[in-house]
Structure formats: structure tokens, C-alpha cells
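Hi team,

Filling in the usual template for the complex we talked about on Friday. All components are listed, including any nucleic acid strands or ligand strings, so the model treats them as one assembly.

SUBMITTER: L.P.
PURPOSE: interface mapping
COMPONENTS: two
RESIDUES: 277
SEQUENCES:
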Amino acid sequence: MLDLIIFYFAAVIAVGAAVMMIMQRNPVASVLYLVVSLVAQAILYVQLNALFVGALLIIIYTGAILVLFLFVIMLLNLRGEHFGGKQSRMGRASKIAITVILFAEMVAIFKQVAIPERIGTQAAAVAEDFGSVEMVASHLFKEYLYPFELTSILLLVAIVGAVVLAKRDKTEKMEDA
Amino acid sequence: MIPIGHFLILSAMLFAVGAAGVIISRNLLIMLMSIELMLNAANLAIIAFSRMNNIVDGHVFVFIVFAVAAAEAAVGLAIIIMIFRNRESINADNFSLLKR
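RESULT (copied from the run log):
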């Protein structure tokens, strides 16, 4: 019973903060609402016995990715830019309708694809160390060693790509002068 | 304990909100944040299925998705910085040259 109360508490915060995030005009407020939503999602991860991944969610997302977002927002210094306002009421209503249809479709897929008798019931009890650092690490470094190593290459490529994209073009400047 | 279906419905809800953010918002930064939210909704579904089947492999996938999300944010923000430098704007309505 207490589990269910905590679930609904976290779920309402996660969805509510996500809705607030997309309604904001100010990107800084938007980032902060996303932080609230992600911390609520971390509570849900813990409820699913995913302690390690839940901790990683907070450390990586709120600690690294969203700080990067905030940093870029401050760097861009977006004062006086206007967003929206031009959108017609009809256009916005149709977009929301599309979203609702998408949600209904996903629920239908979950109902069809996933085995109903297992989804409706409570999950079976798991081992004490399910989702612990030790268990996840042993899977990561034994069965999934190659994907893990490929991840490091992906990150390297992303770093190089980000630097190349964000760097000022020297030849362009020469032409200006 | 909570039925796994609850988590799946919640993940579908978060994904739909993220999709709404991408198509409704005109701010490139908020669009990128909505994409991050959609990735997280998928992660929640993976964790829920992993719990349902009592397999830890889903946690490993989520770990790798985190790395992908970080890479995506880095490259996406670099693109936004470049666009802002060239156009002095991050309003998606201003980037409609292909429409004309």
C-alpha cells in the first residue's frame, strides 16, 4: 500500500513537471522542471529495484547533461527572443490531439505485445542483490564488454564532433577582415 | 508491490509529453530537452521489463542509453550554438528556408 502511494506521488510529479517543462517560455525554468521530473523518475527506478541505475540517472542527467544545458543557455544570452504567439489555436489543438493518439497507440502496443497475465500482476520477488552495482557490473564487463567499449568510441566521436561544430571557423573570419 | 503495467503506462505518458514538447515548442533548447525526456521514458520501460523478467541485462542497456544521451546532448548543443552564431536566434520558426 505504501509502495502504491509512493508510486503515485512520484508519477504525478514526473508527469506534471514534464508538462510544466514544455509550457515554459524561459529555458532556465524549463531545465529546472526537467530536473524535478528526472528525480521523480529516479524514485520509480528505485521502486523497480534498479538502485544503481537510479543513482546514475541523478548523477549523469542532473549532474552533467542538464548542467551542460544551463551552461549553454547562459552562454547564448537569449534576451528578448519571442517564442510562439503566432501559433493558431487550431494548430495547437491538432498537435495535442496527435500526442493523445500517440499515447493511446503506445498503451495499445503494451497491451498487445507484453504478456497480459504477467503485466497485470505484481512482479515476482527478486534476489536481494538484483540491480546492485556488483550485479550490473558483472553483466556489463562480461556479457556486454564489446558494446561497453564501443560506447567509449561513441563518446570520443561526440566530443570531437561537438568541438568541430562549436569552433569558430578561422577561414571565415579571415574573409570578413 | 506495484503491477508492472502501471510503470509501462507512465512511461507511455512521459514519452507522449516529450513528443508534444518536440512538436509544440518553438524553442530549440526545449525541443532538445523534450528529446531527452523521451529517451528517459524509454529507459523507464526497459527497467520495468527488466524487473518483470528478473533479468539485469536491461540495466546494462539503460547504462548505454545514458552514454548515448550524453553524446546526443553534446552534439545537439554544439549545433544550437552554431545556429545561434549564424542566425542570432534559436526559434525554430526562423529556420524554414526549405519550405519556400
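MY TAKE: Chain A has one domain: 2-122+129-143. Residues 2-122+129-143 of chain A form a domain with the Four Helix Bundle (Hemerythrin (Met), subunit A) fold (CATH 1.20.120.1200).

Thanks, L.
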